[in-house]
Structures
1.
Amino acid sequence: MMIDHGEGPAGVRVRRALARSNLESQRIGPGTLRYGLSVVSVAIALGLALTSQYYQFRDVGVPVFALSIALTTWYAGTGPSVLAILLSTACFDYFFTEPLYSFSVSSSDLPYFFVFVAWGIIVGSFSAVRRRIEDSLRQARDHLRVELEQRKQREDEIRKLNQELANQAAELEASNKDLESFAYSVSHDLRAPLRHVVGYSELLQRQASSLLDEKSGRYLQTILEAAKRMGNLIDDLLAFSRIGRAETRKAAVNLEQLVREVVAELGQETSGRDIAWNIGTLPVCYGDRSMLKVVLMNLVSNAVKFTRMRAPAEIEIGSTDIKENEVEVFVRDNGAGFDMQYANKLFGVFQRLHRSEEFEGTGIGLATAQRIVHRHGGKIRAEGAVGQGATFYFSLPQAQYAAERSANTR
Amino acid sequence: MNGLGRILIVEDDPRDVELTLTALEEYNLANEVVVTRDGAEALDYLYCRGEYSSRSDDNPAVTLLDLKLPKVDGLEVLQQIRSDERLKMIPVVVLTSSHEEKDMIRSYQLGVNAYVVKPVDFHEFVNAVKELGVFWAVINQPPPGSIKKAS
């Protein structure tokens, strides 16, 4: 699902509608109405001014006309405002400046007249400025409203996504539970009949070995070996699935020390072999020690296994600094190697590139190694050529970087 | 060595029972073995109830307990044994197919004396059962009140 960061179609619609209403509120009605308002307001002002003059109130004309100009500017816009100023000026000139009842202005009243005109213009422009401010405020308000609307939509979307995420998490948990109970029943129920196959075959072998001819003896032996092999497969598969489910307990791990431990533990397999070990300096990385030991154990024991026909076998373990925040470790051997076109099959579960008579194994070691490395956020890859040995690389977050990162997120 | 302790086997699978008994027989440990086929029967035996009401109320020298059992499962039996003043001293060995860590942790939390995963390989299985039998029924001094036949 994609979050729409721009305006959705709904947002555009809201904005357009608001803009339209904005235009309408700027000018009440069509042009005639607005200019009518201008004329009417000046007429009312004139009426008021004449009435007050009749009742001997002095100097009412200027404020009343100014008021009519202001009202017109306020409600009808610039055009009617100009009209109101012109009309007011004309009325003022005609009715209130000497000589009265003529449009000519006596020189003595000229300043008075100009003051009126200036007064009208100032009031008009003040109103216009105020109107403009009000317009921009209104626009800002509309803009906010649109924004609010969009934010609400976005919040709704986020809420929906959250809900989906929660559902998915619940599903994931359920399927994890399924997997766990599956592994559990495999562990319990699948091993029992296997044990019986092996047990009774051996009992039969013991009981009837004198009665069986060589061929039958071999059949029985094959049954035994097949069952044992299946037992190993089940155990490996369970261990593999356990790695996916187990929690990782991460800390700084000294890889060099770990490699030496692994090599020491392989002593039984390496005794009597001519192996030239070359262990370079290895960095400290950040990960689950026991899991990383499994990775190294798988890679190093593979190297030991696939160099069986070499004397001396050369096994090199070292590191290449590829990035600041990552370490890359490699295990290189001069053994059987593999064809690069099958490189993608190396890490599959139960995938083997050699016949089981050549090299024993269930074909899960590299899959397990890959799973562990991936769980650490790293990568694993292999290079090799048939008969020319293989190199396995895996990368992990560097201890210092990982420590900093977890400190920052805390 | 001062006699043969009674072994209580709690195991629902007849083939596992046979294989276990075969292994014990090889080392003459099968005489004092009682087999119960589920958790409920095991508890009946331990409490001298039902078909075991007439037995003498001594405790077995060791109980070999499977975990996956009909009716009352192994962990429940273990919990019951450990919470009963009269039974709590009985040595209990879990003998199971389960490699699962959580079963092991739970068993130890409930106070099991040993946790043994049945090996697939028959030789290893026989060896494991033999060693368990020899250790718990012969070498180990069971708590007072256990059945022990003088040799």
2.
Amino acid sequence: MPLLEISGLTKDFGGLRAVSNLSFGVEPGEILGLIGPNGAGKTTVFNLVTGFHRPTAGAIRLAGAGLVGLKPHAVTRRGVARTFQIVKPFPKLSVLENVTLAAFLRHPARRDAEGEARRALEQVGLGAKLAAPAADLTLAEQKRLETARALATRPTLLLLDEPMGGLNPREVEDASALVRRIRDAGVTVVLVEHVMKAIMRLSDRVVVIHHGEKIADGAPDRVVQDPGVIAAYLGKRVA
Amino acid sequence: METFIQSVVSGVLTGSLYAMIGVGLTVVFGVMRIINLAHGDLVMLGMYGAFWGLTLWRLDPFVSILLWVPLLFLGGMLIYRFLLKAIIPGGELNTLLYTAGLSLLIANLALFVWSGDYRTIKLPYALSPMRPFGIAVPVPLALAFGLAILITAGLSLFLARTDLGRAIRATSQNPEAAALMGVNVDRISMVTFGLGSALAGAAGVLLAPSLYLYPTVGEILIVKCFVIVVLGGLGSVVGAISGGVLLGVVESLGAVYVSVAYKDTIGFALFMLVLLFRPSGLFGVGKS
Amino acid sequence: MRRAVPLAAVVLVLVLPWLTASQFTLHLAITVLLWTVLGVAWNLLGGYGGQVSFGHATFFGVGAYTTLILYLKLGLAPWYGMAVGGAVGALVSLPIGLVCFRLRGPYFSLATLAVAEILRLVALNWEGLTNGPVGLLITALPPVRIASRPIDWESKTPFYYMVAGLALAAMLAAYGLARSRLGAYLLAVREDEDTAEAVGIDTVRAKVVTLALSAFLAAVAGGFYGLYFRYVDPDAVFPIALSVEMVFIAVVGGLATVAGPAVGAVFLVTISELFRERFLVGHLIFYGLFMMLAIRYLPEGIWGGVRRLVSGHAPS
């Protein structure tokens, strides 16, 4: 059974249809890439799954249980964590405090929460910067902080929104390795990304969205050759 | 029926003055996104201006208004330039708290200097009300109403027709775009704050013959002002006018048909309802 | 240093009645301590949680009236009445919170102000319950013995120790909150509510619980006020000025710190009460002036500034 199942998902913002009758599944343990031209609706899908927006129609199920109508914190509690396209650390708090906040979800006592936070920070490679104020970190480090914060909630499903945006090639390599480590530790990952090389190499499977609709769904090397996908990215006249 | 009409007329007259106070606050919010909690105290200063003008120099308030309005305009600009300008970058909340402090400072300085005794202004021609169609209309209130209409009309023309007015409207819609168009946003903010203060002062002078004067009257006025401005929508001049008149009428009718005691409560209950169901008000532009 | 200062303060508070015979000084100290409780109460929601309420007088008044009504009409001793008043305050805060927390920023602040005004007007007009503008008056307090000696209610000393105990309890509660999960959640809510939600924080619940705690403390303080001054009327316990002063004490003293409101109370209340002794009116000038100075030059408040200096510019 798929871990995450999206069926007939539709979202209208006034007159604009951002997501249209979208259906796909995410298998447990896989890394799914979600790609598409800018404005295709990818972040909206994340916002719908995590409860920031309510779908106009359609169903979202996590391990069979419906997520629609739950408030964001409740979705997180069910086991879905996300990062944001534009990083949102709590700038005045330290790195450790940022992640401890998230760890409190599963550990009401401060000591346990801090322990969980340290573990997550080690996992992303920020173990040396626990006391630094979050605002002092580089962009790449802040992205890792976001990931650690998400991991500290012990998710079964992790939604990463453009984790490699703004990173140099070396940082992209490191970030890719981290995503693999996370998956190997037992977390299913859905990844929205524009850095094609990275996402094609990381993903087990890719779903392509254009104008809010799914136009392709399959292994990366097949999707890349799909004429519809090529047309969407490069425009109709390719020959 | 006659009671109803009398009640509505009184409400509209008072409401017009509330409206002027509200317009001052809302114009400042529209351009600078700040809620000036000291606005009510600027009205109070206008009221005392009228009082001292009459007591010390025998100037009728409707004459001394010509002195106080420019003075408060200038004062408002100075407040912006030397006090508020440095605070605004700190955020909405800090600015709100700062103006709360300013409000307390002004009101208490006034208390200290002028004492808390209630004052009234007695005008010789105000002794008996006019009676058009049998409806009692106090003379000063009618005069105030007339002037309030003139001032508000003047303001609308100013905002719509003059370059400065257009610049103010542009800044209130989108300060960044306005800046790109060559508008000096800082200067506009200063002028707008002066304008808001001048309106407050004018409302104070016009209200003075009709209310008891005491230094902390700003407290009640600012609360009423919020009800108005939220009813009409923060940032909307039309909204403030409608809200002001609406509140005046609701209070007046409430006093007659529900009870004098609970008339203020009605205003607040209305306020809460609007906040809950339509926080952007009837015409609002600010975010909710 | 960190242990010494609070310890010294506690000792000073405990021995003050022996150091001075002046009833004025004791009255001043009682006032400072009462405002400390109020400032700490407000700070829980306003400083830690970032939800600026301009209507906390609501709970103060509810506590004061509950205590006096229960004593005058049912004979319940005021110290029990204070506790009941606190519970009533917390209960009342639930619907208020659920309604007001749907609003953000200045709209929330205005809504809380409106609530306090509505309650003041209700107290003014519901004469059957509150005696309206005439208010409620206690003529005699119940006799109490401690170690077989009766308490002298004419002296200020018993009241002093009562309120000192309240202040200490309030500060301990704040300390416990700050270190707890709820305290951490509040800081997140203050910074960025949406991100807080994404991280699994039930922001509404955090705000409602904090408000209830804050309301409880403010209401108990209100009960003490009724007990000490023996008279309450709507304009004494529900006025806007009272709500606003609470805000000022917390901001000038230091938001989101345990001791900040105490420092703010000592500073502001002392100066203004001394001024009032001499000049009778206008004592709130200092509140206004110091709020403006604080926001401009010392946004973390006096106590926040002191801590920053002492720890050598380390971020708090």
3.
Amino acid sequence: MAKKLYIFGIGGTGARVIKALTMLLASGCKLAKDFDTVVPILIDPDTANGDLNRTKDILRLYQEIRNQVKEPDGFFRQEIKTINELANNSSDISPEYFQFKLDGTDNSTFEQYIGFDSLSEDFLHSKDDKNFIRLLYSTQNLKSELKVGFKGNPNMGAIVLNQFINSEDFKKFGQTFNSEDAIFTVNSIFGGTGAAGFPLLLKNFRGNENLPRHAQIKNAPIGGITYLPYYTLNKKDEINAESFEEKAKIALDYYNRTIIDQKRINALYFIGNKGSTNVEEYAVGGPEQKNKAHFLELAGALAVFDFCENINAYSCSNGQAIIDTQIKEFGIERDSDSISFDDLNISNSEQIAFPLSKFKLYTDYLNKGLGKAMNVSRWTKSNIKLVGESQNSVLNESYFNSDRYKNQINKFNNHFDDWIDEMAKNKPAFNPFNDTNWDTALELVKNRKPKRKGVFPYFEKSFMTLDTENCNLISQIEIRTTKEQGHTALIKLFGQTTERVLKKHRLFK
Amino acid sequence: MKNIFAPIYETWFSIYEPNYRLLFDTLYNGNGYIYLGLSFIIIPLICWYLFYYTWKFPYGNFLHWLLWMLIAVVIVFASTWSIANSEIFASNNQKLIEALNDPETGYKEYATSLPTMYGSINSLMALLLGFIFALFMKRYSKVQTHLPF
């Protein structure tokens, strides 16, 4: 039976970490211990949020591409599914299926949502009164529009998010949960949605008896990553970045008492950036909230792999972890403003350097190298005479001009390149790749020089080596495919050829 | 083998002149025809083997293929000319040596034209055989399978 990992990404940070995870999965990273399916679930009332929608689009593209690849074994090998697919046994792909819907948040203010107007002003004779609410929420809170989220106010988030546990989506999650499955949550501690949503979710996983398959969920291995402040904002307004650290301390104390001491979670990862050197454009939510990708989000995605790797150590009884909650923190080997693969610890570097370099070489090639090979190299030709059908490639000009290439492969690759570029421009920068051109394509990994010297050393570090390997492998039986399965050929071909080229040139072992 | 190659030159291409029989007997008896014949087979074979199986240039096009053909033909012509010249003028057939040295026989004048004639014939053969080799070898080539078409 398929073993699934449900990943709940709460708020903008949750969405960005799931984006980073998706990029790692696309590049060929895979969860350990036989987890064959990842089920990402995004929770955010701010449906127009730029980060959220970008992640949803990336997840949709991942699925669309992967579903067209026959037995993927390199890039895109990890299966990603939505709750909808699992519950309805359907193969419909929609970005909306990745997000849990929150009813009543689209066009209402917080005071409308809680029925503030129906409360009495008479605190002496009324059971529920407005003054009590005013103790807990400022006028700004009450007038706040929910469609842009909770603007860093977890006290609002805790109320609104409480309703989604009764939603159809949450019930479907319960219905699809099997005994071998596990749960991972991602949230930030210094905002509104994530800080409120995480304890609430955990409470329901461990204690909501109305949830279908509650017996399994209650004792399932649960891990989570909580983000301490790692960025600041360029403006003070409704959201004040100066309060991030204070809010984080208060929330940490709360988590300590109610989650860690109570062993409600098996493993809790903490990550943050001292000094918050990264400054983001101020936005209260909506499409304007589209933060640049940050190295810490990539590091957070690594926590998911670590959790799965150690899953056998995590067991629960009666809704509590049998051993104390494992607290883990992320660190790098060398502190640097511009982090490269060599600055990571060996294990992290081995985990991501090779797959990311392969995928980067693949996207770089399609951007800068394909033009020279198109209709010239045999791997792009489908009209070769006097040879078997298998010698003709499906990856011809018409494939690369097709809508499915442009709207799926190309768009996903653009997201990947944006992700890499944004991390390189952030603080601290994660900048493991050099800018390359056609001639210097294999000098892409910082601090690593291609070592192979052929007859013509000039060409040995160019895209020519990749084109040669493409020609060598295009007719291989596992790459050959029908016209309709062009993605299979492309993904499998480059999965193998990028690996060969990087290893042949001793960039990786 | 010389019984295979000799008719190619003497019958197919009619390079046989009974008045200069000594020349053709020398080529026949001294394995000259074998060397000439093998040169239009082996040289194109090696050239096209190199082209299809060892030349890993992924941007090869029809002009590259034509250039390769030209190179193969030129090598065949040069080799053939050299072989024929050597087989005739460096022969140890005493009668032929005497005939070549006697201006009245006309042997030397006729013999001098032979290397070019054999070179031309072998070039033509190399062209034809090279094309056939190419069509066969391209089927099993990984990088140049699309050439010549």
4.
Amino acid sequence: MASVTHSTRERGRIVTTEPLLRVDGLEVGFPSKSGVLRAVTDVSFEVRPGETLAVVGESGSGKSVTALTIMRLHPGSTRISGSIMFEGRNLLALGDKDMRAVRGNEIAMIFQDPMTALNPVFSVGSQIVEAIRIHQDVSKQQAWNRAVELLALVGVPEPKRRAEQFPHEYSGGMRQRAMIAMAISNEPKLLIADEPTTALDVTVQAQVMEVLHDVQRATGSAMVLITHDLGLVAGSADRVQVMYASRLVETGGVDDIFYRSRNPYTRALLDSIPDLLATTDRLDPIPGNPPSLLNPPSGCPFRPRCQMAVEHCAESVPELVVVGEGHASRCHRTADIEVTPVETS
Amino acid sequence: MSDPVLEVRDLVTEFPIRAGVFRREVGRVQAVSGVSFDLMPVETLGVVGESGCGKTTLGRSLLRLIQPTSGSVRLGDVEVTTADRHTMRLVRSQLQMVFQDPYASLNPRIPVRDIIAEPMRIHGVNKEEAADRVADLLTRVGLLPEHGNRYPHEFSGGQRQRIGIARSLALRPRIIILDEPVSALDVSIQAQVLNLLDEIQDEFQLSYVFIAHDLSVVRHTSDRVAVMYLGKVVEIGSRDSIYDSPAHPYTHSLLSAVPVADPIRERSRQRIILEGDVPSPANPPAGCRFHTRCPIAEDRCRTEVPELRAVAGGQQVACHSALEPGQSLVELSRR
């Protein structure tokens, strides 16, 4: 397994920090009638304090399953191996009680659909109070005051009155803010946001992303942003990892991925999306469909759709190979991919 | 210049609001509130806007899947909004629809062959001809004739959307209303379907009304674009005028809110973040419906309804203080 160096660029400066989260050789399988479905295969990565790591991929690529596994929110029959180290503890080895002390406290999650993530029969304020009092020894009144403060922080207008309202009285964007308020109520060190704005309109998406960035600035928490929207990634991420058919296929700094990608899938994905700022005549789609995870093709799973595939690609799954500082790609033909330099600083 | 294939004038579609034990009507929501446009032959008109702006209701009203309350939709010599059943059949052979969700819009219990042949059966095409056309259509949309024997669940989302497109082509229509045709599909599949739509437009000389919330997709597919807000068209014009020199503050904000897949440009972009949510269409603001969120609203905007008027960029805009080409909303709103 290739390991990737521990440094991020921050305004041109190299900062080396201990990772907050370190996932090593994670494998997740779901037993089904027709065999084990491998949803996550050999996934290793790190998240450092304060950074935003975007995980990009199409449906079924394994990005959400990776997040749910970190939170230990997977079904009981799931087969898992590997390790998830968070501040020196392996989350996969924790007992349920210890895990409950981490979940929602040190690591919190924001889901795509706030309507199903919030309880419809309790007021928004009381749900935030519950989240606070599970992890902190404070009075109901203190927790309620804190809930109102949090709602104000995420931009809910008239937070005192709104705290007493129920989720159905909130609009989609406001519900997502309420969920963010709940997620940050215990000042987690790591926020996992799974498609946090996919259900929202674009003007509301811009508001919610702004709130997430403000929250990160205020609390210094790291974020794993799971999304299929490459635009969001370009605007928010420090580092990016691209997943395809349960594996990491490329990982690097945001500019590495967008301007110096050394992976045919990443490149094809970037080429296939229409541009908002320029008129294009024809799109370059990726042919075919993503492979079945129950019965994946031999060798590289992207091979049947890849323009660069050669015979060798059918023989073995390529390794994740370091191609630059903090930049790795999983492709047999990485060396043959030309990179045109772009001025990025 | 040739005649439009579809002329829409002052189209209004209302829904009743019911309450109480007897479900009495207590009010009305105007989902589409006086929309007018012409659709030209082999043209794509993009319709964009956020949820609740009325774009889907507009699409359905054009085909009378929802009965419009007032206004006119003319297809050649036929007035669609008041046509009788017999005439509606002819209308529907000319005017077809492709829906957003390829999982919900195909009957799971009948094979694909029959799904595509059904419109032809209803319109009295004989069986042999229908079978030949089904095979042709399947091939045309990138599937195989033998796929006709399978059922919808055997196909992926992208393939199902191809089946929906094949069905819409079965009667050789002149116009297809596409309601979010690619938004349920994965990114890598969207481009395939968009290219297919492009090819069949040329081949069958189709006009499209392309309804979508994804502004990048609409830029790619449309010749002209209409921007909707709370049931009204606030700006309509050629694609380049809308995207390169938007005149309505709403269009400006909408475009600036879309993230682009280019980190360098993202870092330097000035984003206008609108405050609040879209107001309820049941109780739209007086005057300009956008004034509650508009960064440059003046007193007049709160009382006077702006009408669509032509501006320098060539498009039509419903705004009292429409922006000139090159003007930046960010700078204007700072004043």
